Amino acid sequence: MTNKNTMRHAAQTATAIASVLLLAACTGHKKDATQSAARVDGTEITVHQINYRLQRERGLRPEQQDAASHKILEQLIDEQLLVEKAEKIKMDTQPGAQQALDAARREVLARAYVEQAAQTVPAPTEAAMHAYFDDNDALFSHRRIYTLQEYLAKVPEDKIPALRAMVEGGKPPAEVEAWFKAQGATPRAQQTTQPAERIPLNSLKQLAAVRDGHGLVASAGDQVHVTYVTSSTDAPVTFDRAKQAIGQFMMVEARRKVTEGNLAALRTSAKIDYAPQYAALAASSPALATTKDIESTQQITETNGTHVTLPAANASSGVQVTLPTTTTSSVQVSLPQTQGVRVSLPSTPASSVEVRLPAQTSTDAPKK
Fold it and tell me: Which residue in 223, 213, 241, 256 sits closest to 308, CA to CA?
């Protein structure tokens, strides 16, 4: 057990040191044309390096810049000291560190290519944004806030049509619960209040047609999901209020398509030979997108959905749109009162757009 713990600790340490070594390989030993901020045993740390880190800090106010710059400089000094020590004891030659360095380099270059290609995507036109607004009226002009009663259970597939007939025929939740009990099934039940933007788009389009007191059934194999609209409140959103978020969503969708197109072209022109143990899997499974281009603020468990967050009229409004999970593309953009914009580009398993708009005024508050 002690040996295993020691090996695990060594691997973790090697990975951490490798990340620091990569930083040194990129910036620590190369002469930079920018002004020197400090020297550590003769190795220059530049203002350029500090500014690069500052660009990654989100929400910094102008009066915070000096303090943040000093903090970053001290971090860079600490990193340089760690790099020097790691190199002295030859950690950069250890297998774990070499693998981490190679993985980090590959990811940085792949992401840089994706970012560069995304810069060619034009902004959506006013007409295109209006079309998206009109095509998704359940999110905007006919937006509702739903109180839902949901049941998730496993029942024999041949019983599902009878359940569907009950629910869509107007039977109340109490009768559905009794039906589950008669089948020997114990459903997981929950009641929630959800605005339209918190419901996956493919489900929302069906739910928007359901009247209060009625429900619908979704199934996959022997799994059933029953959703009743216990009550709902109209909370429409104007185009002017949603325009910024729609534009950002459409930009991400366009970037996703560019990324997928580029990757598909590269795969077509490349010669890819699978090892025997992976060949069968590759032939039987759909290709998975492997580029990690844009950061998401949360992991979405649904397979296909659009999320738009539009809080109360007296709160700062926001819109979050989640793209179908055919790629890992996403973008996070903030537009606070200062009109600052941020876009971060690490990776997650889901595609999303989050836009924070300034607090709305009384003139564009949703009408009840």
Answer: 241
Does a structural domain hold residue 29? yes
> One digit per residue, pLDDT tens: the chain, 368 residues?
444 444 444 444 444 444 444 544 444 444 444 589 999 999 999 999 999 899 888 788 888 889 999 999 999 999 999 999 999 999 888 888 889 989 999 999 999 988 888 888 899 999 999 999 999 999 999 999 999 999 999 999 999 999 999 999 999 999 999 999 999 999 999 999 999 989 988 889 899 999 999 999 999 999 999 999 999 999 999 999 999 999 998 999 999 999 999 999 999 999 988 888 888 877 765 544 433 332 332 232 333 333 333 333 333 333 333 333 333 333 443 333 333 333 333 333 343 444 444 444 333 433 43
Is 123 a member of any domain? no
Q: 266 and 359 in one domain?
A: yes
Let me know whether 110 and 196 are in one domain: no
Q: Do residue 153 and residue 214 come from a single domain?
A: yes
pTM as predicted: 0.53
Nearest one of 335, 308, 147 to 239, comparing CA atoms: 308
Which of 198, 215, 234 terminates a domain? The answer is: 234
Amino acid at 10: A
* Enclosing domain of residue 164: 144-234
Burial of 143 (0-12, 13-18, 19+ CB in 10 A): buried
